Amino acid sequence: MKYKDLQDKQKHSLFLAILSREKFPWIQDFVRIVFAFIFFPFKNKIRKSHFGAAGYLKKLIKVKRFEEGYIFGLERLSDLKPPKSNSTSGPVYYTTWWSVFQKTCECALELDRDETFSVLSKIIENGPDPKMGFAVSDSYCRLARLACKKNEPKAAWKLVENAIRCDDSYGYAYFLRAWLGQKLHKGKVLDDLISAIKNQPELKDHILQDQTFKKSIHLLKKLNTKQRTESV
Q1: What are phi and psi of 34, to 5 degrees?
Q2: CA-based angle 188:191:195, to the nearest 5?
Q3: Whole-number mean pLDDT of the chain?
Q4: Distances (CA, A) of 232 to 50, 190, 226
Q5: Residue-wise DSSP of 29-91
Q6: Taking 70 as the threshold, does the pLDDT of residue 100 lie above it?
Q7: Which of 3, 55, 161, 169 could form a disulfide with 134 if both were Cys (CB 3.0 to 4.6 A apart)?
Q8: What is the pLDDT of residues 51-94, one digit of tens each?
């Protein structure tokens, strides 16, 4: 599923729309409390299951236990095995694997470990197919951010290009490629910024506030001019 398809699904689903609204955080808290109460006796089994691994990682990230989250994520990625061809759990495995990978990357970004990028780069190569859609694209973007932190800009560029190939509707991937392009003096930065805003309008504020782009007043003027022209 692409990013734009996910957004459309949320717009047309009252349940998903309510859960995703930041102005109703109490609903999310209420749901978490109810589920925690119901499933507390089985929490250890749930953590190791397809259903609970990503949720447990999210909890560790929330309380900033990144080291524990990173180790747990690697263990789960190692333990998660593809289902048999005639199994109905294929979609659950696929979604869980990529969700766990995303959150493991998030933990890695907060650590000073030297090996995180090389380890996760090898793991993503063996990720479940098809390597298409928003979840995969976002995974490549997160790994690209880790590459930047490890001073591997060329590797980050390749990862972001993979992200765009996986989902050409994910605005953040274009934003990240524009950011790298500005740093490396590579690619079509202006076109990527336009694509980023076109797919995710909320990114415009991030672009205008980002120090990398603020240094290029000429680029931002071109961006504003281009947008005004296209809106006419």
Answers
A1: -60, -50
A2: 135
A3: 85
A4: 49, 19, 10
A5: HHHHHHHHHHHGGGHHHHHHSTTTHHHHHHHHHHTT-HHHHHHHHHHHHHH--PPPTT-S-HH
A6: yes
A7: 3
A8: 588 999 999 999 999 999 999 999 999 988 877 766 655 788 89
CA 142, CA 110: separation in Å to the nearest integer? 12
Three-class SS state of 175: helix
Residue 25: partners with Cβ closer than 8 Å, 6 or more residues away: none
pLDDT average, residue stretch 19-42: 55
- Is residue 11 within 8 A of residue 17, CB to CB? The reply is yes
User: Domains in the chain and their CATH numbers?
Assistant: 3-231 (1.25.40.10)
Q: What are the tokens at 202?
A: 């909320």
Specify the DSSP class assigned to residue 127. P
Record the tokens describing residue 65, joined without a space: 């236990």
Q: Which two tokens stand for residue 76?
A: 């789960």
In one letter, which amino acid is 103? K
How does 168-181 read in b/e, with b if 16+ C-beta sit within 10 Å? ebbbbbbbbbbbbb
Long-range pairs, 220-228, Cβ under 8 A, ≥24? 222/190, 223/190, 223/193, 223/194, 226/190, 226/194, 227/194, 227/197
Is the full-model pTM beyond 0.85?
Answer: no
* Closest C-alpha to 130, from 165, 104, 78: 165
Q: What is the pLDDT of residue 210?
A: 95
Residues present in the chain in total = 232
Element (H, E) at 157: helix 153-166
